[in-house]
Amino acid sequence: MDFRGKRIGWAVTGSHCTISRVLPEMRRLVDMGAEVRPIASPAVLSEPTRFGAPEQWRAELEAICGHRLWTSVVEAEPIGPQKLLDLLIVAPCTGNTLAKIANAITDGPVTMAVKAQLRNRRPVLLAVSSNDLLGLNAVNLARLLVVRDIYFVPFGQDDPTGKPRSLQSDLELIILAAERALQGEQLQPLLIGRQA
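Above: the chain's sequence. Below: its structure in token form.
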């Protein structure tokens, strides 16, 4: 697919161990001609972790995309009335963010972006990364699997023995899943083998 001229929002949430793994896919999308607008949840920008500091994430996201990071509800809200995006990608999408989306909680820039995008009946692509999606959060995953205009990057268990409730999307499938979402299709198979 030709991504030239496509306006894509890319929201990053607090799966800190996964953020560095989505950045190459974001860069690929930019290299393929997409205009990518970065969005970050407060969890990404609040505290340093062993995986990186907020200043580092902000700098990398803005450098890759060539746009200022959207970090507030106010900045994300125009996505709806101005129809700013052809596609919104949430990668990584934590269980916390997934639960908020499933329960219509709009308390930050990422959930506002999702709400605004869905208002326009435009696609949202989620790349899950959570230790509890087969636990208490499974009900929220089930809710979103049947929502029109929400698509998933195919996912599987990343550590069935050590973390049996954990699911991780295959991040190398983000670009292909984005192509399909723009065509109104879910990339199949949705459930895939173990993810590293």
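The first strand starts at residue 7 and ends at 12.
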